[in-house]
Write a structure and sequence with these properties.
63% of the residues lie in helices and 8% in strands. The protein is mainly α and 160 residues long.
């Protein structure tokens, strides 16, 4: 609520937003939820989810360690374990012991995983192309700059 009052005090109005008392973070959340819903609807056509597609996109062709994959996906270990189990059950990945570290596991895409990865990649590219057609380069640059600054604020713990 502080952010809303800050912008009111300094004359900033959410003139493009339909809801009264809308905050920047609520717009970001609603937008991300809409994107996730769109990706999940598309993935469901192929018996998958957005989480599976995102994981496929983050597994390197030469294999990825499970410990490297978790931070890329921003997932908790229990969620990652469940996702990897589902992917293995669907025949999208195989797991092999890491030859450099017997305790670790490397994850590899199967031929079916490579095929589904390609579908995931094309879906992401199609959406991004639609955004590039819709917004000017200046709008995109402004959005990226604002997003990067928000992440800096969060990472520096200077929220308030």
């Amino acid at each position: 609520m502080r952010a809303y009052y800050f912008f009111i005090i300094f004359g900033f109005r959410f003139k493009h937003l339909k809801m009264k008392n809308t905050t920047i973070d609520s717009v970001i959340k609603a937008t991300w939820q809409a994107i996730a819903r769109m990706y999940n609807e598309e993935a469901s056509k192929y018996g998958a989810t957005m989480a599976l597609g995102y994981a496929l996109l983050n597994i390197d062709k030469e294999g990825t360690t499970s410990t490297a994959l978790a931070p890329r996906l921003g997932m908790e270990p229990t969620s990652l374990t469940r996702t990897l189990k589902t992917m293995e059950d669907k025949g999208l990945i195989t797991k092999k012991k890491n030859p450099k570290d017997g305790r670790g596991v490397n994850i590899y895409l199967t031929p079916l995983g490579v095929e589904k990865r390609s579908l995931s990649k094309q879906t992401v590219l199609n959406f991004n192309n639609k955004l590039l057609e819709t917004f000017s380069q200046q709008q995109i640059d402004n959005f990226i700059e604002m997003s990067e600054k928000i992440q800096l604020i969060i990472n520096e713990k200077k929220k308030f």
